[in-house]
Amino acid sequence: MSPVFPTVREVLALDPVRHGAPRLVAGDAGLDAPVRWVHVAEVPDIATLLGGGELVLTTGIGLPADDAGLRAFIGDLADVGVSGLVVELGRRYVSGVPRVMAAAAERRGLPLVELRRATPFVRITEAVHALIVDAQLTELRATEEIHQRFTELSVEGAGPAEVVRQAAELAGCPVVLENLSRQVLAYDPAGESAELLLDGWEQHSRRIRPAGRTAYDADSGWLVTTVGARGQDWGRLLLRWPGGGDLAAGTTLGGRPAGTPPTRLTILVERAASTLALGRLIRRDAEGLERQIHRTLLTALLDHSRPVDEVALRARALGVTLERRHLVGVVVRHRLDDPAAEAAGESTVAAESPEAGPARLRDLAEAVGQALREAKLTGLTSAVDDQAVGALLALPDPAAEERALTAFAAALRRIRLDAAPARPAVAGAVPPDAVIVAAGSGVGGLREARRSLIEARQIADAARRDRRDLPIFRLPHVGLAGLLHLLRDEPRVQTFVERELGALLAHDARHPRDQLLGTLRAYLEQGRNKSAAAAAAHLSRPAFYERLARIARILDVDLDSVEACLSLHVALLALDAIRTP
């Protein structure tokens, strides 16, 4: 995209200027400075009327006659940030501008140009101003293209990778999408080295701390905006614009401080962030109409997108009565890490083709529906994400809960075992019984059904690495670490980690040779026993105590407080879960 303002070099190439036989006598280092406007002046104190970025035209008839005055005149122009000075010869100066003027301009890096032939200044101003207006129209068209492009992406339901790619293409700069824990979700290096872009990303990102929801961090060269919707922020979109060091500090260009990105780039990242946030809210489903309605109703319960009375009414129309029933949320999912696949050195997910995953999920959804029918149970059932199938069982009373769950789990296992011989053996494929059945706590009404469904999904995710062959996993079967692992993508958990440990993580990012997180981990894992922790960390006790004191200052906590240490320990476990795939 074209810059809004032409440079001094481009102005000198215009026909009305070339007609005057221009000759650069000083300040060639400033030829790439942008020209915001052209101003004609014949008085020595013109600098007080300028705002920076102007190209000053003069015949010199009003300039000082003494050397000190000429030096002061050039200094004032340079101080205010003008782009250059053009002097027409013939009226005040015949053979050339005074040497003292040229020397002063060279020292300040201010382009000083002689016009050796008489030229109407109005033609120069008209040409330059027309160039500026054309460039501004180009900028407006580019902004319109940004809006149109991201509107199309929103309508098409483009994924994060495509949105980031389009943003990088429009900007011509690297773009990175990260979550609240500084993990990269998508990126496009815009032709640069991806390895260099992402090397040590978390530590680098933690040093990027712009002020505001959308802001430019001049120290790092990254334009940053927050990504989120409905009051729930879940990431940041970053665009690297390295132009901050090219212009003199303190000047302004087109109403913005020098060294800040063009307005179009700010518009671009904000529109891209909006598209990403909207895309996260969009859910597509290609299942049958009845299954779509089941999924719509389960999603409505999970997301609070519909009143529970409406959900009950629509479910009853499907033959599933939810009012005055004991409700139990159930989630069935494949194990992500199967022992057979691990022995082969690959994960079950990586081993299958892109088409195999959705087909496997459809098979699982059909098996769950059949198991409900064989166990003579009623409820809503549908895939709830790319890995799991959910069901909301409607039971006559709480006493029937254990019996119903046992019957459902047994029917599901039998159905999948019966189906196994008909399937071709595939190396690394998941065995037919390699699924997890998880159930949440039973609830007495539809308004509480969401809690049971979410609990079941959390248990299923947390138990995916559990090798116990349990028919049904319930909440007592998963520990805190497992619970935090399944919640690792939850923005509120990431926010909690940042609140508790962010200052320490930022310190470690700034001081790679002085890592304090390991010291805190050793202290907490040893039950706050400082002597044992010092030995575990291979440090002398005085050195270990000194590091603990620094951690306490950085985090502003009392490490002798049981409550504070408990909060920090939970945050550490959550951080481990976030960093573990």
Automatic annotation (TrEMBL):
It comes from the Bacteria. Belongs to the CdaR family. PANTHER family: CARBOHYDRATE DIACID REGULATOR (PTHR33744), DNA-BINDING TRANSCRIPTIONAL ACTIVATOR ADER (PTHR33744:SF1). This is Purine catabolism regulator. Residues 308-461 form the CdaR GGDEF-like domain. Gene3D superfamilies: PucR C-terminal helix-turn-helix domain. It holds the Pfam family HTH_30. Residues 516-574 form the PucR C-terminal helix-turn-helix domain. Residues 10-132 form the Purine catabolism PurC-like domain.
